[in-house]
Amino acid sequence: MSCLKPEIAFPSATGANGLDYNASLDMVPRAPNPTPRDAKNGARVKHANVPPAGVYLPNNNRLTPHMRSPEYVQLSTAAAITLGIMPGKMHGCSCTRCLNLLLTYPEGCRANCAYCGLARHREADRDYADRNFIRVDWPAVPMAQIIEKVAADGENTPFHRMCISMITHPNSDADTITVLKAWTDRIAPATVPVSILSNPTTMSRSDVKQLHGLGADIFTVALDAATPEIFDRTRGKGVQSPHSWAKYWEILEDARDIFGREKFGAHIIVGMGETEHDILTLVQRLVDMGGHSHMFCFFPEKGSLMDHLPATPRDQWRRVQVARYLIDYRGVRVDQMRFDEAGRVKDFGIPNAELQTIIDQGLAFRTSGCPGKFREDLSACDRPYGDSPPSNIASYPFQPRPADLRKIRHQLGMEKPGEAYVEGEEIEV
Ligand code: SF4
User: Fold this and answer.
1) End-to-end alpha-carbon separation of the chain, Å?
2) Which amino acids bring their CB within 6 angstroms of ligand 1?
């Protein structure tokens, strides 16, 4: 491919230690505090034994009801607003297209991932159903009530997809199957296809087969870390957590075999200490397997073991977003791209005019995830403000407007002549 190679500038220095990217040495989780015995395994909630009474809105209430899957699930604030279960408005979007569900137990997730608001070490200070996850609260709702509401809307449902997020819990495999079956008994997969965000640690190949047989459409693995070292440091032995890189890849490969091309993928978080070259090599590996990557920008989740660390600098994030979009949807390969000595993208390996068109289309900067009903490269799962505040958007849950694109270009160091970004102008739009 002939290339006019635009030289990438590295415009801002907002990462740890004045760097414009989050370097490995700086992204070290803090150690968890010990949990008192009377707070372990949801003991407080079980001891109080308050019966649930329908919808539960998280408020850090020590009388959190005793709710468990499969009867109860939690759902994202965006999904709760869209379903009319919670009041509220979301900046720039009227609804979410993905009904994100999360299994729930008083004992919570038994893993301890350093970047996650649901991690086990939080037992001491926050009951499971009250914990923030990807920056928002997750109300708990009877599964039957959710199914009733979505079934009543029929073809008019706002949702393009439903996703069951497993957590690390001994009942999680069986309960995922129960929740999926309850859903598909009432709602046709063609009306609202289902994705599974899996927990490989407790799963076997036969679990993957069973979920596929029950009508799940896409299977994803939350790899989250881009390298084995970062995986171990943030969600393995480094934080007394049970996950292993090898087991995650085993289940990812099972998903490739069982769900097939375009029907499996992996979540990856950008900015936990990997280089841009590391993460884009992983993106390429997933595409070569026939799958996709779904990306999150690292954000220091309140209460997590990484809440003292800086969010991913926007220029690092934008470069990875563009490159990932090119690899996932435009057939560009990582080996066509050039990187500097710190592993940062120096050029994207396509002609400049093509690159400018991709940036102007804005799709590369939208939230990435399983597709909805509009187009393959547009995720149903828009996770509004799951990886940034609305004042400094990382993943756009709406089509970036001209002022947003000027900001994105500013972050990339690629402003157009005569179209400079004016600080804060996108907030006024
Ligand atoms: S397994 Fe998932 S839910 Fe549990 S702590 Fe890790 S990232 Fe959070």
Assistant:
1) 39
2) 109, 111, 113, 116, 118-119, 167-168, 235
